Amino acid sequence: MPDVNTLERWTTLGVEPGVAPGALERVRALLNTDDRFHGVERLAEAPAAWRTLRDALRAFVVDGSADALDREASRRALVVRVGADGPRLVPVDEHDEAAALLATVLDEHRAGRLQRLKACANPDCQWVYYDASRNRSGRWCSMGECGDVMKARAYRARSRA
Ligand SMILES: [Zn+2]
Description:
This protein is of the alpha+beta class and 161 residues long. The protein is built from six helices and six strands; from the N terminus they run H-H-E-E-H-H-E-E-H-E-E-H.
């Protein structure tokens, strides 16, 4: 089993629905450790620093609030490296997973993919999923489950009105 200090120990990649492409999946997997659908805090036994980073990421990705993530970023050491495909930020310490994750956040934001991570609009779910719809109009983690539940709720609400 991986070291308790590593993200790998606490996150599970590829959990449906809404798996993100490439490195962005590591960000999504961390966000979903606050598993509101199952009511489980998957970082309960993890080092507190991971929870702080996760909550800061969630505030930025889901709520658009930058302050906490800015504080986290200011504590990490990253440096600009330049390759044939252009400049990018990389961690000063190659073992610094938090810095690597922040570099991924920057890359994915620039590529317009970070903005496709959303929390399911079903308040009982809030699962973070990758919205692959062409016009980024997805609202639920999956149409089959949350989409149908929420449409039925809206229908009942309209019927009562
Ligand atoms: Zn959902």
